[in-house]
Design a protein that fits this description.
Layout: H1 3-17, H2 32-37, H3 55-60, H4 65-73, H5 94-106
Helix pairs in contact: 4-5
The chain binds heme C (HEC).
């Protein structure tokens, strides 16, 4: 494992231990199971910065649904200076990613 990966993981574990982990209850009922299944909620909240940006702040970027779907599979850390890079979530099937993306865009 690369050192930087180790650092990143220990930072996340530290945050979780401190109780900063978002609660699944923060998400609407139709989105919650997806957030749990793909662990997005470990790093994202709806309305506040966690490890990653608040989904409301992602919504402000006015991405298209397709763009969000591609960013989930292939994040562009340069879009979020000051945040650690998000790991590519290639395990999310396109139809679930589309649901998540539409919901994110509904937040703006
Ligand atoms: C290990 C923590 C972590 C997990 C798990 C995670 N993210 Fe992220 N996410 C981040 C961080 C950090 C950023 C900001 C840096 C970046 O984009 O690489 C981010 C950025 C994003 C962005 C904005 C991309 C952009 O370029 O503007 C979206 C959309 C997003 N995440 C969606 C998701 C979804 C959906 C899931 C679950 C399938 C998920 N994330 C899981 C940490 C995480």
């Amino acid at each position: 494992m690369k050192n930087v990966t180790k650092l990143f993981l220990s930072a996340i574990l530290g945050l979780m231990a401190l109780g900063f982990q978002a609660k699944a209850e923060d998400f609407p009922a139709e989105i919650k199971p997806l957030m749990q299944k793909y662990t997005c909620f470990a790093c994202h909240k709806v309305d506040a910065r966690l490890v990653g940006p608040a989904y409301q702040d992602v919504a402000k970027k006015k991405y298209s649904v397709d763009k969000i779907v591609s960013l989930i599979a292939k994040p562009q850390p340069a879009n979020w200076p000051g945040y650690p890079p998000m790991a590519p979530m290639t395990n999310v099937p396109k139809e679930d990613a589309v649901k998540i993306a539409k919901w994110i865009n509904s937040l703006r």
